[in-house]
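Quick check before the chapter quiz. The format below is the same one you will see on the exam, so make sure you can read both the input and the output lines.
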Amino acid sequence: MEHGPRVLSLTPAHVARVHREIEDRGQPPGLQPQTDEDYADWVGRVLASYPAPDKPTELFAYGSLIWRPEIEHRGEQGGILRDWRRSFCLRQWRFRGSPEYPGLMMSLDRGGECQGVLFELPDTDLETQFNQLFRREFTVKPITNIPRWLTVETD
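Here is the expected output.
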């Protein structure tokens, strides 16, 4: 007897079986929100450390930035980031779990490789673009996903 590949899908009925409402109690104690000065500092450090000022600035997206980049870009292409992989390595207490039962969120972790999309950013106003991006990607201190320049392979 020949069997075809099994197709699994996550339906609203599946989600309803495990969904539970959790009251949002705010950030856990000890975490402080990033300030405007903190964001300005991160943006300044990242822009000052750009290793190729004569080349276009590109942003590597490997998760929700792919389908919701929220920043202006003028081109995109696929790419592979070597020595980094997507991993459920980021614990989340708020919106994805609770302090008692933290949820896990994907982030980049060392080892393996990760396919993603490179967005070419406009040459003008990178400061505003990065400020907007950083406000989306990290909100509290200390940050868990540190911005850094990486080499991505493309066609």
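If your answer matched, good. The longest strand covers residues 75-92.
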